[in-house]
Amino acid sequence: MTDRYAQAVNSGFTKTLAKKLGLPRPAILRRYRDGDPLTVGPVLVLADAASKADADAVARTLLGWDLDVRRDHHDDVRWGAVVVVLTEAAEPTAVTEPVLAVGSVLRSLAGNGRVVTVSRAPAADDSPAVAATRQGVDAVVRSLGKELRGGSTSNGIVLTDDVEVGHPSVLATLRFFLSAKSAYVDGQLLRVGTADATGIVGDRALDGQVAVVTGAARGIGAAIARTLARDGAIVVCVDVPAAGEALAATANAVGGTTLQLDVTADDAGQRILDHARERHGRLDVVVHNAGITRDKLLANMKPAQWESVVAVNLAAQLRINEVLLAAGIDGLRIVSLASTSGIAGNKGQTNYGFSKAGVIGHTRATARLLAASGGTANAVAPGFIETEMTSRIPFATREVARRIPSLAQGGQPVDVAEAIAFLASPAAAGVNGQVLRVCGQHLVGQ
Ligand code: NAD
């Protein structure tokens, strides 16, 4: 699935022409490659006066990651990232200086640069001024995402429950947002709470773990299988028997095993559990990726079109999760594929939107059930991703969908896979019941 417009405006004669005509030129996004540096340049750490100690702690961590960390702006530096620590900001005027300082360095931000805020979530007993300040940060992150150019992104980490900035889950989230792994994540705020988190913050985070990926024969699922295997997981690749050949190709490529299974089967959960335990001795991660669309305006929707979408995208996940929860697996990670259509709705997709919003609903409820045993349930909501599913969208609609996001392009399957690998990693234990959009900042609001 290629984006010919993005290719044309980034190469040769058509690049010059596009520049002259002032046409939008989607940047070529930097994606993770083994051995590449974490950021594209030095990292500037800023803070409001009250958050200096937290900023010091963040700066020490970044130094430990071998980054070139600075606390002051110098005109000659081309910044790879700016991290703004606002954890203790308690009144609106407190954020003025650090936020305007970000503004003053944006012209020196390198392409594919990063702005990451670290702030606190409003709490029920906050004073109005504290609540206003904390809430205000959200819109700074989102507005900045819409202003940045050249593939740069703006995302925020929001601490809940008195979690400290040095918590492994905060650091894992910071590393994800700074890295090329979050290439298509823009304008997002991820809440981090105080679950016990162990495991390394970095690469190979899934070493020795067993992960099940449904719908792994192609598209996003195949990319998830590859990415989890890259991070050290043994991957069980699940798909319908009709996709057997492609499924085997994915499993062979990642050194995993195949399980031919329709996820809507009554015994799907038990077969997944049995396969993982009998073949690999354990089960640590389940990624509910299998999904279908049967788009129709509601006025033309046939019962089978509604029912099949809900059965595959939602009911199958609920049924499989019941078996997984009953199995009492410590530290289980469940990541489910939602969609921006499940957040904003989409014409022709009442059935799909219902199923994907349902995924968000059950993820939040399942997160509470898993927390006691150190597990998490999170959802990833892709926007427009270049796959066979989206290649069937009519040309004009597809082209509009590509240009609407702040990053002015569709995402790649690997972008969704990287977000899932991050959420599945042990150090992300404090990220629970969240919906992470991988959409290039596609929607207004949310
Ligand atoms: P795709 O159609 O390319 O692949 C889906 C895979 O799921 C296929 O291999 C298919 O055989 C498998 N599958 C379908 N029904 C199944 C069943 N009953 N049992 C087992 N496997 C089954 O789709 P994709 O674009 O890779 O999407 C993957 C997921 O991401 C889906 O849940 C989709 O809704 C979601 N998503 C995709 C996009 C996008 O832009 N492509 C956007 C938002 C959400």
Automatic annotation (TrEMBL):
The keyword Oxidoreductase applies. Signal peptide: none annotated. GO terms for molecular function: 3-oxoacyl-[acyl-carrier-protein] reductase (NADPH) activity. Gene3D superfamilies: NAD(P)-binding Rossmann-like Domain. InterPro entries: KR_dom (IPR057326), NAD(P)-bd_dom_sf (IPR036291), SDR_fam (IPR002347). Belongs to the short-chain dehydrogenases/reductases (SDR) family. This is 3-oxoacyl-[acyl-carrier-protein] reductase FabG. It comes from Isoptericola dokdonensis DS-3. The lineage of its organism: Bacteria, Bacillati, Actinomycetota, Actinomycetes, Micrococcales.
